[in-house]
Specification:
It is a single chain. By secondary structure, the chain is of the alpha/beta class. It has helices at about 15-25, 65-70, 90, 95-115, 150-155, 180-200, 225-235, 255-265, 285-295, 320-325, 335-350; strands spanning about 5-10, 30-35, 55, 75-80, 120-125, 135, 145, 165, 205-210, 210-215, 240, 250, 250-255, 275-280, 285, 305. The strands form five sheets. The protein has a seven-stranded parallel beta sheet, sandwiched between helices. It binds nicotinamide-adenine-dinucleotide (NAD).
């Protein structure tokens, strides 16, 4: 049988970054994508999608689109990327997020059964959002799950949990406790996929990605991408506004490193018991990120404005040691260099979308 890889959401940021490596490895690669207008303002096949990839316009929530696709395609491997990805937006458009992320996943699985075309492996890109605030440590060393910061806490500028120290996420040690609708839908995807795959003798591979950035990311989607937002403000010579006290922590992981990890997981012979945490392994404050972007363009010093967003977690970093070992992978681009590369790409203006 020919090896065929189906990539849902394959025309997006991560899908395009993966497309060349997948086309090198598989006999046939098919990208199913509805060209979501929030992600694709010009609703055409992206130029960054490798030309060897067959593009199919379709919606993962539509059973009829699955029927049309599977009439012709029998994937041996599926990489399930299609998703609504706006964490803040998921609070006010919860049904849309649940429909695409949860029902889109179950429609896909039902379609494989209906057409008797089960893949051998399904790769899912879940998110660090499943952890919520994760586990923090008390003074006596015991672990505490503080849950979500309340609006009252944030309004009085109490950004951290008193007397608690954050710890990096790690899937074999830190329980997922999402604090956003988006995170909840990503965790539901994980659970659905795992139980279905185990029953159907299909291998599930789950990645929990930190904040992915780099050339190819959307510069227009207002709901994702703090790195591109900061870079564009700095390029315009504006003061970058920094939320809370500037000490929100994230792990910014470069797109090429994410693509390399997903390719490694796609071809790994063993499926790990736990999700792979994928980050740079480096915790960065958003103030530091803003300073990197401002320095690249000679923009004014970023300013802390004390504003906050409901549902934002305070601290998100991860331990990548287990993923490095299991995938024989390591990130190579750290945040200073990665932001520089993103800015060079923005400056080159090569993010045009052509048929
Ligand atoms: N980029 C990140 O920082 C990040 C972090 C954690 C997890 N992830 C996950 O990785 C995956 C890919 O993210 P991305 O950054 O490439 O996002 P993206 O928005 O660039 O790509 C998603 C693609 O899915 C498509 N899509 C959306 N709804 C669809 C539908 N109903 N049917 C078919 N296609 C649909 C969009 O058109 C888009 O091309 C998502 O599952 C996301 O949850 C991304």
């Amino acid at each position: 049988m020919l090896s065929t890889c189906l990539v849902t959401g394959g025309a997006g940021f991560i899908g395009c970054a993966l497309s060349g490596a997948l086309a090198d490895h598989f006999d046939r690669v098919v990208a199913l994508d509805n060209l979501h207008p929030q992600v694709h303002p010009v609703r055409q096949r992206p130029a960054a999608l490798d030309e060897r990839v067959e593009f199919v316009l379709g919606d993962v929530t539509a059973a009829s689109d699955w029927d049309d696709l599977l009439a012709d395609v029998h994937p041996s491997t599926v990489i399930h990327l299609a998703a609504e990805t706006g964490t803040g937006q998921s609070l006010t458009e919860a049904s849309r997020h649940a429909k695409v992320n949860v029902v889109g996943t179950t429609e896909m699985l039902d379609a494989f059964v209906r057409h008797e075309k089960l893949p051998r492996k399904i790769v899912l890109t879940s998110s660090r959002a499943v952890y919520g605030e994760g586990a923090w440590v008390k003074g006596d060393g015991s672990v505490s799950y503080p849950g979500q910061r309340s609006r009252a806490m944030l309004q009085r500028g109490q950004w951290d949990f008193p007397e608690l120290t954050p710890t990096p996420f790690r899937s074999d040690r830190v329980e997922p406790r999402p604090t956003s609708v988006y995170g909840s839908t990503k965790l539901a995807q994980e659970h659905i996929l795992k139980s279905w795959c185990l029953a159907m003798d299909v291998s599930p591979v789950i990645f929990r990605l930190q904040n992915v950035y780099g050339p190819g990311q959307s510069l227009t989607n207002p709901y994702t991408g703090i790195v591109s937002l900061f870079a564009q403000k700095a390029k315009a010579g504006e003061v970058i506004p920094v939320y809370e006290d500037g000490d929100i922590v994230r792990d910014f992981v470069f797109i090429d490193d994410v693509a390399a990890a997903i390719v490694a997981g796609t071809f790994a012979s063993q499926t790990g018991e736990f999700a792979y945490d994928i980050g740079s392994g480096e915790a960065t404050t958003i103030m530091h990120l803003a300073e990197i972007a401002a320095a690249i363009y000679g923009a004014p010093q970023p300013e802390i404005n004390g504003l906050f967003r409901d549902g934002d977690v305070r601290h998100a970093s991860c331990s990548i040691e287990e993923s490095k070992r299991a995938l024989n992978w390591a990130p190579v681009v750290m945040v200073d260099e990665g932001v520089q590369r993103l800015c060079s790409w923005i400056d080159a203006g090569s993010q045009t979308v052509t048929p």
